[in-house]
């Protein structure tokens, strides 16, 4: 695809698709249902047909994808737009593009950690699949089981509100509004050129405040290097998701349980950090810093932290390291982070979590996972998933709760 074609495709998405998507989103609630002005919603949805087909064509994507979108639209119109959207055919038509190729997608789906309100709103994106050259070194020694990798690194070029503002950096199949539950995660597409702005604007600001006088290798990366490091982290993270007694892709439904999923994500974070720490991957030190600082300082400060899955993972890890004395130490004013000691504690934690995966019965597995999580994250009040631990609140009391909403229309890479 030439640069001229890419520019034309970006312009098509930004100028003809995105405005209609935004107009339609205004008429939806978090379930994806249209809750006001059904006639206008129908008009907007029908007006999307032609520009969506053109966007797919300009991106070099088979017409079958546009056909699938139109079939889902037709079925929704027949059911009534005040019913929940079901874009099964659109999801089934999505194929991860080859290296250096464009991808486009449009459907109602959840933008993970995107701007509030979050729900099954109509979204779209245009992205370029780009795996860094350094990744070859990693895949040579950490080949996915059965040669299967569902993780893809990409640069977002254009998109709707849920992706071009806020902190959503990934597109998962299970987040698309469908009639059938997604039983296996066949892809995970990451928008990694968004990451450095999030990391520098939110995470490192807190790290400098809490861990005074510590230096961070990760803040010295260029945009290109940061993209490469983040892409390698994604691959290694996904590699460990597919390892162990219960690989994530074939145990998707049980691992979507809040407590099981929290342990799964924490385990994989620990395993990925240890692999990076042991010099198995390029940008190892930077990746360890990404994992620790993102989990400990960014996610727990999400505005919806007591119900946020990623915040729960960060707080669970934080409480483990604090309670067991492995590398995270509360001081009178702030805290100290000893990465070497953290690795020891994270190895022990990963092994404890993996032991639960040998429980064959799903019900018992969920019960044991919940019991372990509750040892560090007590049940919340007023329907909240958990209480933010008092020790964490005290340790981070001087840090900002949240930052201004970030926007990504002018990404440097």
What does this structure look like?
- The protein has 413 residues and is an alpha+beta fold.
- It has two domains: 3-182; 240-395, no CATH class.
- The chain is 49% helix and 9% strand.
- The chain contains 16 helices and seven strands.
- The protein has helices spanning 3-25, 38-47, 49-58, 63-79, 88-93, 135-141, 161-164, 195-210, 223-241, 252-255, 258-277, 284-298, 309-324, 339-356, 362-374, 390-395, and strands at 102-108, 122-129, 151-159, 170-171, 188-191, 328-331, 334-337.
- The strands form two sheets. A five-stranded mixed sheet has the order 1-2-3-5-4. A two-stranded antiparallel sheet has the order 6-7.
- A hairpin with a 2-residue loop joins strand 6 and strand 7.
- The longest helix has 23 residues, at 3-25.
- The model has no long low-confidence stretch (mean pLDDT 94).
By helix and strand content, what is the structural category?
Answer: alpha+beta
Give, in order, the helices and strands.
HHHHHEEHEHEEHHHHHHEEHHH
Strand content: 5-15%
Rg, Å, rounded: 21 Å
Distance between the termini: 18 Å
Give keywords.
single chain; 413 residues; alpha+beta; 2 domains; two-stranded antiparallel ribbon; 16 helices; globular
Offer a concise description of the structure:
The chain is α+β, with helices and mostly antiparallel strands and 413 residues long. The protein has helices at 3-25, 38-47, 49-58, 63-79, 88-93, 135-141, 161-164, 195-210, 223-241, 252-255, 258-277, 284-298, 309-324, 339-356, 362-374, 390-395, and strands at 102-108, 122-129, 151-159, 170-171, 188-191, 328-331, 334-337. A 5-stranded mixed beta sheet has the order 1-2-3-5-4. A two-stranded antiparallel sheet has the order 6-7.
């Amino acid at each position: 695809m030439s640069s001229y074609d890419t520019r034309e495709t970006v312009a098509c998405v930004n100028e003809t698709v995105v405005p209609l998507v935004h107009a339609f989103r205004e008429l939806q609630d978090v379930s994806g249902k249209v809750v006001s002005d059904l006639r206008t919603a129908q008009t907007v949805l029908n007006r999307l047909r032609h520009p969506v087909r053109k966007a797919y064509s300009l991106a070099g994507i088979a017409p079958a994808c546009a056909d699938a979108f139109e079939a889902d639209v037709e079925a929704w119109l027949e059911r009534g737009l005040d019913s929940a959207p079901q874009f099964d055919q659109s999801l089934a038509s999505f194929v991860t593009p080859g290296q250096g190729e464009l991808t486009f997608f449009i459907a109602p789906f959840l933008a993970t950690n995107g701007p509030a309100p979050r729900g099954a709103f109509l979204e779209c994106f245009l992205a370029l699949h780009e795996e860094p050259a350094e990744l070859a070194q990693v895949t040579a020694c950490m080949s996915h089981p059965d040669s299967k990798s569902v993780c893809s690194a990409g640069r977002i070029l254009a998109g709707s509100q849920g992706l071009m503002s806020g902190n959503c950096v990934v597109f998962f199949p299970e987040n698309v509004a469908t009639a059938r539950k997604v039983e296996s995660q066949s892809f995970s597409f990451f928008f990694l050129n968004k990451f450095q702005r999030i990391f520098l604007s939110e995470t490192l600001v807190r790290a400098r405040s809490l861990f005074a006088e510590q230096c961070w290798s990760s803040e010295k990366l260029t945009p290109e290097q940061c993209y490469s490091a983040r892409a390698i982290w994604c691959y290694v993270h996904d590699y460990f998701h597919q390892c162990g007694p219960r690989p994530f892709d074939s145990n998707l439904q049980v691992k979507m349980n809040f407590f099981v999923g929290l342990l799964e994500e924490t385990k994989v974070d620990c395993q990925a950090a240890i692999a990076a720490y042991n010099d198995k991957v390029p940008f190892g030190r930077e990746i360890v810093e990404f994992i620790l600082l993102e989990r400990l300082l960014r996610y727990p400060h999400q505005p919806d932290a007591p119900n946020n899955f990623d915040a729960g993972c960060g707080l669970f890890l934080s409480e483990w390291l604090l309670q067991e004395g492995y590398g995270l130490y509360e001081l009178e004013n702030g805290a100290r982070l000893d990465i070497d000691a953290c690795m020891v504690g994270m190895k022990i934690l990963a092994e404890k979590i993996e032991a639960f995966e040998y429980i064959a019965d799903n019900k018992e597995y969920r019960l044991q996972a919940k019991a372990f999580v509750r040892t560090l994250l007590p049940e919340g009040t007023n329907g909240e998933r958990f209480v933010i631990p008092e020790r964490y609140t005290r340790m981070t009391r001087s840090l900002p709760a949240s930052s201004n909403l970030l926007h990504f229309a002018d990404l440097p890479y």
